[in-house]
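BUG: 3D viewer hangs when loading the predicted structure for this chain

Environment: internal workstation, default settings.
Expected: structure renders.
Actual: progress bar stalls at 90%.

Input used:
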Amino acid sequence: MKFSIIIPALNEAQNIQGCLSALQPLRNDCELIVVDGGSTDGTPAIAEPLADQVIRSAKGRARQMNAGAIQATGEVLLFLHADTFLPDNAIQLIREQICWPAHWGRFDIRLSGDHFMLKVIAQMMNWRSRLTGIATGDQAIFVTHEAFMAVGGYPDISLMEDIAICKALNKISPPLCLKAKVTSSGRRWLQFGLYKTILLMWSLRLRYFFGADPQTLARLYNGGHLWKP
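Structure tokens produced before the viewer hung:
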């Protein structure tokens, strides 16, 4: 079973080398595909010696991940953020457990950083994901190529693409919720203030549930604004 690890990136010069270096031992079983959305900090040049493919794409995480999936040759696609690290046995765990009826899944998550609330947030994310069958992109969503194509890939929306594809995949099978933890940076949670960001994330999810425009939500998310984009 061959895997394609697809990494969307935009101005990730500080993270991409560490991300790809950690994946080098997996290259016998995996191809590494970096999809750059127009970086201006040299991200593609850093990635090229460490990846099988570096693709240029229109900006937008959903578009970038879909562009990577089009070029992928693996039977299983694994979507990884540039600031997220897989557990050592990630590929083995997926290979052993992804089968009928589970066509997709995700890992549990830990958030790096010193603030004690990051541990609480990560645990809540893991519990919520098990309860709802919805994963976040930080949890390294993986899916068979067949199932990914069956749902039409990620919807071309500016935010909440992970929630949208999980809802579509749940119609094919429930997710495989692996207890092994990916380690993701807590930088986003701390950037605009931790408690403000918690409120912001729950607010964005609620608005999306009630039909808010993802483009408007993306402006709020990127600016750290609760009410005005």
